[in-house]
């Protein structure tokens, strides 16, 4: 019997196909910080201009960013997160917190985010139903794609 060649259907993979490239996530970081002009993005991200233009186009086409003219002559655009783009901000905060814990010390963290309560934001994932903090041991996966189990594809 031949092995199945298609990978597991997965929302993580689908999302990564849109925002999983380094410069795409850094664009999201910058526009969420309010830096949506092309020259700001080039300076703050360090991406080559052609690659940045491609990433911006893709994020706009996917509905993650919106684009508006801020100068007619020469024509220049500013990018802002859409509601869908803002939904990715907690993902960025969680990635940043992981990097702070595992790649930096308290003395060399590149940025601190303050919540509007006045305290440093320390993101955590909680269950919407019960409010408990999510931990690996408390999770169970239930594959919804036909022909797939947690361990992989079922026999054809």
What is the N-to-C order of secondary-structure elements (H for helix, E for strand)? HHHHEEHHEE
**Spatial ordering of strands, largest sheet:** 1-2
Distance between the termini: 9 Å
Name the helicity range.
Answer: 25-40%
**Total domain modules:** 1
Strand % is: 5-15%
The chain-level mean pLDDT equals 93
**Number of separate strands:** 4
Question: Could you please say which CATH topology applies here?
Answer: Arc Repressor Mutant, subunit A
The CATH class designation is Mainly Alpha
Report the CATH architecture: Orthogonal Bundle
Globular, elongated, flat, extended or rod-shaped: what is the shape? globular
Radius of gyration: 20 Å
Number of helices: 6
3D architecture notes:
By secondary structure, the protein is α+β, with helices and mostly antiparallel strands. It has one domain (11-149): Winged helix-like DNA-binding domain superfamily/Winged helix DNA-binding domain (Arc Repressor Mutant, subunit A), CATH 1.10.10.10. It is built from six helices and four strands. A hairpin with a 4-residue loop joins strand 1 (65-71) and strand 2 (76-81). The N and C termini lie close together (9 Å).
Compact description:
With 156 residues, the protein is α+β, with helices and mostly antiparallel strands.
What is the topology?
Elements (H helix, E strand, L loop, with lengths): L10 H9 L2 H11 L5 H8 L3 H13 L3 E7 L4 E6 L1 H4 L2 H15 L44 E2 L2 E2 L3
Antiparallel strand pairs: 1-2, 3-4
Helix pairs in contact: 2-3
């Amino acid at each position: 019997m031949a092995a199945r060649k298609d990978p597991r259907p997965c929302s993580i993979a689908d999302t990564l196909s849109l925002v999983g490239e380094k410069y795409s996530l850094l664009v999201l970081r910058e526009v969420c910080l309010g830096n949506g002009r092309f020259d700001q993005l080039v300076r703050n991200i360090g991406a080559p201009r052609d690659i940045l233009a491609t990433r911006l186009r893709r994020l706009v086409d996917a509905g993650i960013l919106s684009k508006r003219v801020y100068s007619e002559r020469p024509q220049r655009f500013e990018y802002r997160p859409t509601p869908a783009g803002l939904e990715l901000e907690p993902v960025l905060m969680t990635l940043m917190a992981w990097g702070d814990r595992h790649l930096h010390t308290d003395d060399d963290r590149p940025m601190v985010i303050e919540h509007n309560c006045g305290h440093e934001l320390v993101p955590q994932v909680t269950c919407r139903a019960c409010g408990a903090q999510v931990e690996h041991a408390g999770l169970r996966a239930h594959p919804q794609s036909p022909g797939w189990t947690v361990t992989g594809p079922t026999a054809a």
